């Protein structure tokens, strides 16, 4: 592989949105390059690639395989050395990718919030545990508790059970009144309702507690148990794994670095999925959490729009309204209860990279000041975890991102074509 | 509107210079207030390396940096642990015989002023820092130089001042000052003091148009944690040439081992780039330079890079003293890349002047009158500006 | 199908195609800056808690790497 690649359409993220965009753009005859930092395409929902994805995904994977799209798996976007260029890195090499148009399908991560014991090995995100199981983690006969909020808890429980785990219970923080309203509203979305019913069927027998949350993870050097608030009572349970996630957050680092407008944590896009920057599109969870159907649709729209098929893209736009309405439902009915942001004790670590405690952060009133004085957010994750936690706990907004986007080998930053491309 | 604060000294800017001065004035029993436009220690003070280094290009620079380092050394045990003070020393690296001769000259200069330093031949250098490129000719070791983490050290100075009664006004953007001791804030409030000291770094020029201060951009990059790879602050002898190159863009090898095990990699200088974003070609030039000295850096992971702006004067010396033609308005800025090293020295010198005491150092070389005079922001054209 | 990898020099069998964080199964891969053991949290390349040294390269995210025959993993403890 030469160290510099050219493409008409670069797509970042090979989850459903990115794959749909690639298929649509390839069908228009464009040269497409699909970049993903995971070993295989599929994103989080279809993690593990075609062999492990559900039947509903197989035609999408087949269309991708039949397309002319160039797939760069295991490559992360390290930096933006100049307009129209991305510096990519894999464990062995660095590449410059020059593009005409860019579609960002960067997906989402879990909102992970601090509680006592959350740094113990054995405590993971709820979706994180699902991802690990999809990645081959053996959970046969393991005792697992899931807590947090949102439909992901159910999906994760289903994956874990299918893998042979004993899911002891699910603690959903939303109160029954909110859940009932969500269930009622789902009637307008038969497909989602069917998914929910199917999950409920797979989960037969797993206790599902509403208005419930984790209080603490217990153990010395590894998770041994969990203390829970279940409605009005507390319960302590021994367990092997604890998965806790408070919904999803769009990954916006690349969008921010490209100066795309972000509002309420997601990329702002027009009807054709274009961001505030001409020629840069955002699709899927990056524009707001809405699930796989929204992702597939948005990917198609952007794939068409970016290749000049504006009319065909426009024709799909009305369908998006319905997906956005569903996204709004999720937001509304799984909003966090105040107790969730008050679980951290003074000695609970909020920044896990630099081990910064809740007590030391409470002394400050801005992210910038806390960062300078405590190193919060200065570690390897670059504030991806603690930034969201600080926003939930203290109401702080993160400040400017500093390249590279992810820790990158110095040698990669010296990728020679970069300098040649940017004479001063 | 009546002034909302009365005191002896109002300091504009809570960077390391303003904070050190606030502490020094408060220690002398003065009633002090500090007006900070944004967040303490978040400007140039947060952007630099925190290398406490004695530089010897001219007697005035040597005097101030030497006094500054001595004062940090004397207080090292008072500093909080997260100020990360470490007396790691500096190795001035020579690539060839010509640079070795420069090292010898440098040593003679230090010796003349009673400063200790050791000339290291190539073998001794390799023993001290095995990661360095094998083709280096040697180095001059200055064992007393040190490093610290400036935002925490700066905040500590400010907290000391506050503990002695100094008031801190945050988000207090000063829009104008006069020679009657009145500062007007952007929100209309007035602050009054017997003396006003402008210690606002590059922003000082907005209050004193025509101030001979130019932002000189610098870029740094920090790696993930790789403990024990390097033990000294490593600087190429060509650093002085880069630091003092009067105009064009330049880079010089300068690497600091942080207490965390991270490596802080510099350095670059630019006068004409005012964009706070990273300049990639220059970052690459800086990293290429670093790899010439430390080839094993290539495999290390970069965590973050950023740019900052040093407040630079035409003669590389700070502005410490009265604003020319004024009786109650003072300056404490223009330290370019030496503000951390010289903060305590500058604070002592200016506090002495404010208290009408004779400073330990001759203040003449730092007197702003060497460039002045200037008019104030709300008046008309600046007069007699040295560019 | 299994592949053999080495964790701190000890041979381990892992399922072909699984990722390294899954293969480590909650075994701490690193010590935090204050000395606490840490293992995978997010499972998807975001949190950097699962960092280990792979084939001599420190600070690699285990969850982003598929195991292979002869992979040498050193925990950063």
Can you describe this structure?
The complex is a heterotrimer of chains A (424), B (387) and C (77). Chain A has helices at 16-27, 55-66, 126-134, 152-162, 176-186, 190-202, 253-257, 292-305, 310-333, 358-361, 367-374, 386-394, 410-413, 416-421; strands spanning 4-12, 32-36, 70-73, 76-79, 85-89, 94-104, 108-110, 123-124, 143-149, 166-172, 208-209, 212-218, 225-230, 233-238, 241-246, 248-250, 262-263, 266-267, 280-282, 349-351, 356-357, 408-409. Chain A is an alpha/beta fold. Chain A folds into three domains: 4-109 and 249-331, FAD/NAD(P)-binding domain, CATH 3.50.50.60; 115-243, FAD/NAD(P)-binding domain; 344-417, no CATH class. In chain A, strands 1, 2, 3, 4, 5, 6 and 19 form a seven-stranded mixed β-sheet that branches. In chain A, strand 4 (76-79) and strand 5 (85-89) form a beta hairpin. In chain A, helix 5 runs antiparallel to helix 9. Chain A is globular and about 60 Å long. Chain B folds into two domains: 1-86 and 146-213 and 313-387, FAD/NAD(P)-binding domain, CATH 3.50.50; 87-145 and 214-312, 2-Layer Sandwich (D-Amino Acid Oxidase, Chain A, domain 2). In chain B, the strands form three sheets. In chain B, strands 1, 2, 8, 9, 10, 11, 17 and 18 form an eight-stranded mixed β-sheet that branches. Chain B is globular and about 65 Å long. Chain C has 77 residues and is mainly beta. In chain C, strand 1 and strand 2 form a beta hairpin. The chains are: A alpha/beta (424), B alpha/beta (387), C mainly beta (77). Chains B and C meet through loops of B and strand 6 of C. Strand 22 (408-409) of chain A pairs antiparallel with strand 16 (301-312) of chain B. Chain C: It comes from Chitinimonas prasina. Chain C: Pfam families: Fer2_4 (PF13510). Chain C: InterPro entries: 2Fe-2S-bd_N, 2Fe-2S_ferredoxin-like_sf. Chain C: This is (2Fe-2S)-binding protein. Chain C: Keywords: Oxidoreductase.
């Amino acid at each position: 592989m030469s160290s510099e690649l050219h493409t008409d359409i670069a797509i970042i993220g090979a989850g459903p949105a990115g794959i749909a965009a690639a298929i649509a753009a390839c069908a228009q005859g464009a040269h497409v390059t699909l970049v993903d930092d995971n070993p295989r395409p599929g994103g989080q929902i279809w993690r593990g690639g075609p062999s492990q994805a559900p039947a509903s995904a197989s035609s999408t994977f087949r269309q991708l395989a039949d397309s002319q799209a160039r797939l760069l798996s295991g490559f992360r976007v390290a930096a933006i050395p100049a307009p129209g260029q991305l510096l990519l890195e894999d464990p062995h090499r660095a590449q410059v990718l020059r593009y005409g148009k860019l579609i960002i399908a960067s997906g989402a991560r879990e909102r992970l919030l601090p509680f006592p014991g959350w740094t113990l090995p054995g405590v993971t995100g709820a979706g994180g545990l699902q991802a690990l199981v999809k990645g081959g983690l053996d959970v046969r006969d393991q005792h697992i508790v899931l807590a947090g909020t949102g439909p992901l808890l159910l999906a994760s429980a289903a994956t874990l059970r299918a893998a042979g785990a004993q899911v002891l219970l699910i603690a959903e923080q939303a109160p029954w009144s909110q859940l009932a309203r969500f269930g009622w509203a789902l009637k307008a979305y038969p497909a989602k309702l069917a998914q929910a019913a199917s999950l409920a069927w797979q989960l037969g027998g797993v206790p599902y507690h509403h208005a419930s949350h984790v209080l603490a993870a217990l153990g010395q050097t590894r998770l041994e148990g969990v203390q829970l608030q279940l409605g009005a009572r507390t319960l302590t349970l021994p367990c092997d794994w604890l998965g806790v996630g408070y919904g999803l957050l769009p990954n916006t680092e690349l969008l921010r670095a490209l100066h795309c407008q972000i509002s309420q944590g997601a990329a702002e896009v027009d009807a054709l999925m274009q961001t505030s920057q001409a020629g840069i599109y955002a699709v899927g969870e990056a524009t707001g959490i809405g699930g796989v159907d929204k992702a597939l649709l948005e990917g198609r729209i952007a794939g068409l729009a970016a290749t000049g098929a504006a009319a065909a893209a426009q024709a799909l736009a009305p369908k998006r309204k319905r997906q956005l309405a569903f996204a709004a439902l999720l937001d509304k009915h799984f909003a966090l209860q105040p107790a969730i942001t008050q679980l951290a004790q003074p000695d609970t670590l909020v920044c896990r990279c630099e081990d910064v405690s809740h007590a030391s952060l409470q002394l400050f009133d801005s992210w910038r000041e806390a960062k300078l004085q405590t190193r919060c957010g200065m570690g390897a994750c670059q504030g991806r975890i603690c930034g969201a936690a600080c926003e939930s706990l203290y109401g702080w907004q993160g400040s400017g991102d500093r390249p590279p986007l992810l820790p990158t080998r110095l040698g990669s930053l010296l990728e020679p074509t970069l300098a040649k491309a940017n004479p001063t | 509107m009546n002034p909302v604060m009365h005191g002896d000294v109002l300091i504009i800017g809570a960077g390391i210079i303003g904070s050190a001065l606030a502490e020094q004035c408060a220690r002398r029993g003065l009633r002090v207030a500090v007006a900070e436009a944004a967040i303490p220690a978040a400007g140039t003070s947060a952007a630099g390396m925190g290398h406490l280094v004695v530089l010897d290009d001219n007697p005035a620079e040597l005097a101030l940096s030497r006094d500054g380092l001595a004062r940090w050394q004397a207080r090292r045990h008072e500093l909080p642990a997260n100020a990360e003070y470490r007396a790691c020393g500096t190795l001035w690296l020579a690539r060839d015989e010509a640079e070795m001769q420069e090292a010898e000259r440098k040593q003679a200069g230090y010796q003349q002023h009673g400063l200790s330093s050791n000339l290291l031949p190539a073998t001794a250098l390799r023993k001290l820092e095995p990661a360095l490129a094998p083709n280096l000719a040697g180095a001059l070791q200055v064992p007393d130089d040190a490093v610290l983490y400036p935002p925490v050290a700066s905040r500590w100075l400010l907290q000391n001042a506050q503990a002695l009664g100094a008031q801190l006004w945050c988000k207090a953007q000063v829009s104008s000052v006069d020679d009657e001791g009145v500062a007007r804030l952007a929100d209309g409030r007035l602050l009054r003091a017997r003396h006003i000291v402008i210690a606002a770094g590059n922003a000082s020029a907005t209050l004193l148009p025509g101030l001979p201060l130019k932002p000189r951009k610098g870029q740094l990059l920090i790696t993930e944690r790789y403990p024990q790879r390097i033990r000294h602050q490593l600087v190429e002898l060509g650093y002085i040439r880069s630091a003092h190159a009067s105009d064009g863009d330049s880079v010089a090898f300068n690497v600091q081992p942080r207490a965390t095990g991270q490596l802080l990699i510099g350095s670059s200088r630019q006068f004409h780039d005012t964009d706070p974003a990273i300049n990639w070609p220059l970052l690459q030039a800086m990293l290429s330079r670093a790899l010439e000295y430390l080839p094993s850096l290539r495999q290390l992971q970069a965590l973050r890079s950023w740019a900052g702006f040093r407040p630079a004067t035409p003669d590389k010396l700070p502005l410490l003293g009265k604003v020319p033609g004024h009786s109650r308005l003072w300056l404490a800025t223009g330290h370019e890349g030496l503000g951390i090293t010289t903060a305590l020295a500058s604070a002592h010198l200016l506090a002495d002047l404010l208290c009408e005491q004779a400073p330990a150092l001759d203040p003449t070389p730092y007197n702003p009158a060497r460039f002045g005079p200037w008019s104030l922001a709300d008046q008309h054209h600046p007069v007699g500006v040295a560019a | 199908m299994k592949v053999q990898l080495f964790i701190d020099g000890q041979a381990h069998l892992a399922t072909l195609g699984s990722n390294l964080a899954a293969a480590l199964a909650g075994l701490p891969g690193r010590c935090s800056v204050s000395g606490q053991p840490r293992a995978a949290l997010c499972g998807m390349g975001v949190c950097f808690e699962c960092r280990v040294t792979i084939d001599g390269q420190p600070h690699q995210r285990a969850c982003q790497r598929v195991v292979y025959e002869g992979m040498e993993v050193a925990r950063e403890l």
